[in-house]
Structures are given as structure tokens and as C-alpha cells.
Amino acid sequence: MHNLIFLTDLAGANLDPYVRFNEAQLFHARNPKPGLFIAESPKVIERAIRAGYRPASLLVEEKVLDRDLADLDHEMAINQTKGLGKTPIYVANSKLLRQLSGYNLLRGALSAMYRIERPDLASFLATMPTDHPRIAVLENVVNPANIGAIFRSAAALGIDGVIVTTDSADPLYRRASRVAMGTVFQVPWTYVDAKVWQAKGIGLLHQYGYQTAAMALRHNTVSIDDPQLDKVDKLAIILGSEGPGLREKTIAKSDFTIKIPMATGVDSLNVAAASALAFWELGNQKAK
């Protein structure tokens, strides 16, 4: 039996995650425990459940209620031993939901979900494959849409894990997970404090046997299709901010500086587009 709560307005405090909380408030909603995030659309919610996230509540459009609950119950039963059980399921008609500014409700469902604790950098690296691992590091990538697009490319093109500095946008922001089509729940990832990354991040990657390839325009760059890169046993591909790019210290400490060959008169690509080309050339998918 589902815990269905039919809404006549959006005033209740239990609806704050959907109606009144911004991304930062969601992130800190359960301090000191990890907070909440909003998963948008049944497909994204299903992928989150499959990755071990639990829904705190759902907000479902009335006209698609039966369809969405059947799909989500099935996913919960497979991955978390039981269905939705006592999870509050708020049900609203289309007219009421149109009051939610900025939400893409055309696919029917939203879920406020519990975040999970992320491992520290050393613990994360210890979980990576031992055979030819390829990971990405996102340094100060602040646009959530770019974060989502990078994760989607990472999932598709053989990147084994992603490290995100804390001065980047959060991969679980609603826009990021939507652009990623839920692949933020498919690719292993963790945060690293931006100051820790600058102080010793590359050194720790080196301790775990990784060589680092910074994507930047410099006089000593090598092309992403250079054969020596494929011969590297463990490779970390570092991508930087959309405007200024990687920090000078990051570039200086990296083993390689790599570039994408381009036509005369064009300096660079958007970081999301650049990541797709780099992951295709350097990831593990191409070899399969």
C-alpha cells in the first residue's frame, strides 16, 4: 500500500524541498549528515535508486501516477529489497504543478533523495580498476550543465571514475543530473576539497601510480592522440574552468599537457565538448 498524499496546495513544510529550498539549502538540509538532492523524471530517479540512493519523498503528477509508481516500485524491489513502502508520495494535478517555477514536470515525477557519504580521495582511488584505469578530474568547473554533460560522456566513453573539486558545481544539482540523464549515478565519483587538491591532489594521484594529463594550451602540449598517452598504465585527465581553464600550479605539476588539434583561428572548445573528445581518445571504451 502506497502512502499517497493528494495535494490541494503547495503550502506544507514537507514540500519545502520541491517548492522553497534552493540547491544550497537542500545540500545542508540534514546537517551534520549528508543532505538532500532533487532527482527529476522517472528515468533519473530509477538510476539513483539503482545506485543505492533512497527517496525521502516523491512528487508525482496525478495523470501518470499509476505508470510511475509501477516503474519505481519495481526498481526499489530489485535494488533495495522492498518497494516504496511508507515513503511519502505527494500527488498533484497539472495545474498545481505549473506553480513550480523551473521544474521540468513533463515526465511526471520528482524525488527528494538522501545523499550518501562520499569517500575521501585516497579511499576513492583504492576502488578504481587495477587494469589501465582512466579517471577524470574536474577543477573549478562551475556550470552544472557542463558537469552533467561531462558525466554523460564519461559514462559512454570508458572513464572509470570522476573526481570533482569542491569549487565546481555539484553533480547532484538538479540541472546537472538532468543533463547527465542520470549517469551521475552510474559513474563512480567523489569530491575533493579545492584547497586539498591544490596542496597535494596531484601528489596523491602520483602516490597511487597515476600520471596526470592537464588539458591546456601551452607551448609543450602533446596531442590527445599521441601514442605515449595510451601506453600510460594509470591516467588522470584534468579539465578546468570554462573561462580561465586550469590553474597554473595544476599545469606545472602535471606529467603531460594535452591539447585537441583544431583548425586555424580557433583556440579551444567548451569544456564539455573537449571532455567528450578527450574521453573518446583516452578512455577505455575505444579499446573495447
From TrEMBL:
SUPFAM superfamilies in alphabetical order: alpha/beta knot, L30e-like
Keywords linked to the UniProt accession: Methyltransferase, Transferase
Protein's recorded name: RNA methyltransferase
Residue ranges of domain tRNA/rRNA methyltransferase SpoU type in the record: 135-279
GO MF term (any one): methyltransferase activity
GO biological process: methylation
Keyword Nucleotide-binding (UniProt): no
